[in-house]
Amino acid sequence: MKIKAVIVEDSRLARNELKELIKKHEEIELVGEAENVDNGFELIQNTIPDLLFLDINMPEKDGFELLEMLDEVPITIFTTAFDEYAIKSFEYNALDYLLKPVSEKRFAMAMDKVKAKLEGRGEDKVAETKKLSESSQIFIKDGEACWLVKIGDIALFEIVGNYTRVFFEDKKPLLYKSLNQVEEKLPEASFFRANRQQIVNTNFIENVVPWFNGKLKLTLKNGEEVEVSRRQSYIFKDKMSL
């Protein structure tokens, strides 16, 4: 069993110590390392590792914030010099919590847990890739506000930088996921990619009018207007016709 791993840790010394421990376990393939949360997020998105060694105390953003940014979270082992975060780490479903400096014996025990977890993960992986239905609920947290929202109640998804804005009722919170990640999970029967920036719930379309250069313009029940790209307009007409 080959286990793809990444390290997100701001201390070069701590990263080197982890790499020495990893070398003693041939089943672990280190595919990258990062010294802060933003670089770590990009590294994880690019490499899709099985295992994440994650420091908690880092400048600007901490390890907990990185986990909240991820759509698919690898098996996570926290590595830290402080023990006061132990309880909180398990609230984030961390598999283990290693105090620095990490001994070879303690590291080996953590790797046994990782292998046991991966061996029983096959069915979970299948479940994770399933599409959501209109009755599925998603949890959204934006600042101090939280919502549990039915997919079918969402009228529109829209790119805002690295975030996706979610339109439901009179709310417009931000979700730290790309629009492509969101689209992969949505039910195709009711959601349509209108352009590179927006996905609409076709059940919320109130009006459709021809627009410039073969495009269409949609007006949604919440008053939002969406311009459908020319290419997607042809697909939309085909999708919505008898």
UniProtKB/TrEMBL annotation:
<feature type="modified residue" description="4-aspartylphosphate">
    <location>
        <position position="55"/>
    </location>
</feature>
<dbReference type="Pfam" id="PF04397">
    <property type="entry name" value="LytTR"/>
</dbReference>
<keyword id="KW-0597">Phosphoprotein</keyword>
<dbReference type="InterPro" id="IPR046947">
    <property type="entry name" value="LytR-like"/>
</dbReference>
<dbReference type="InterPro" id="IPR011006">
    <property type="entry name" value="CheY-like_superfamily"/>
</dbReference>
<dbReference type="InterPro" id="IPR007492">
    <property type="entry name" value="LytTR_DNA-bd_dom"/>
</dbReference>
<feature type="domain" description="Response regulatory">
    <location>
        <begin position="4"/>
        <end position="115"/>
    </location>
</feature>
<dbReference type="Pfam" id="PF00072">
    <property type="entry name" value="Response_reg"/>
</dbReference>
<feature type="domain" description="HTH LytTR-type">
    <location>
        <begin position="138"/>
        <end position="242"/>
    </location>
</feature>
<dbReference type="InterPro" id="IPR001789">
    <property type="entry name" value="Sig_transdc_resp-reg_receiver"/>
</dbReference>
<protein>
    <submittedName>
        <fullName>LytR/AlgR family response regulator transcription factor</fullName>
    </submittedName>
</protein>
